[in-house]
Amino acid sequence: MPRFLLLSLSLGGLLLGLRPHAGEGQSVPSPYRFFETKQEGGAFLGHTNQGTGRFGYGPGSGLTVGARYGLHLGGPFGIEGVFGYRPTTRDVVDPTREEGNRVVGETDAEIMSIDVRLRFSLTGDRIWHRLNPFVFAGGGLAWDLAGDGEADGLVLPQDQFEFGRRFLGLFGAGVRWIVSEDILIRGDLALTLNQLETPEGFLDPARELDRVGEKEWVSGPLFSLGIAYHF
């Protein structure tokens, strides 16, 4: 009987030793963590593939550089202010010539823009594996710093195109990669929308041109990569 009791106690102790301790194996690190900083400021570099309108006199595509400041509002929402600059060119178009042979020159264009965007984080106020995907929409103004060029004198005054100051709308998506406690890298893909005002000469019914209206919407994608300091 003592030998049986000793054997039972030994077997019980072995089983107790093999039983997992309470809580062991249940602590799984979460891929999510809270994004504790509220502000960010940085710069970006990208490319805009811009539409130039039915007759092709609008400012063209080109490298885009800019700066951005963002503020977290709470939950998934944030707001951003963005400055952009796109040095490019535009064609000077003579509507009195045959289609396909209307470009008579080229002049510089320097498109400056400022806009405000509302950002919505798909992971709320947290990051997932250091990533924070988001969507955004906003609006602002764009204008041409270069103004008229010498080539504009090759066409009649009523046929000269002026970019002026135009409404800029945009929406898109992106992702922020939290590299460290104060540095992040982000990529953005936006669809930009703005209007071109049709020169008066292109609206002359006697010229029998395809009518596009007094204003024409054009669009183009903008892809950018940037780096920012978040705090």
Task: Characterise the protein shown here.
With 231 residues, the chain is mainly beta. It has a single domain, classed as Porin. The chain is 7% helix and 54% strand. The chain has one helix and ten strands. The chain has one helix at 2-18, and strands at residues 32-34, 39-48, 62-74, 77-93, 103-121, 126-128, 131-144, 165-178, 183-197, 215-230. The strands form two sheets. An eight-stranded antiparallel beta barrel has the order 2-3-4-5-7-8-9-10. Strand 8 and strand 9 (183-197) form a beta hairpin. The longest helix has 17 residues, at 2-18. It starts with a helix and ends with a strand. The relative contact order is 0.19. Residues 4-9 have low confidence and may be disordered.
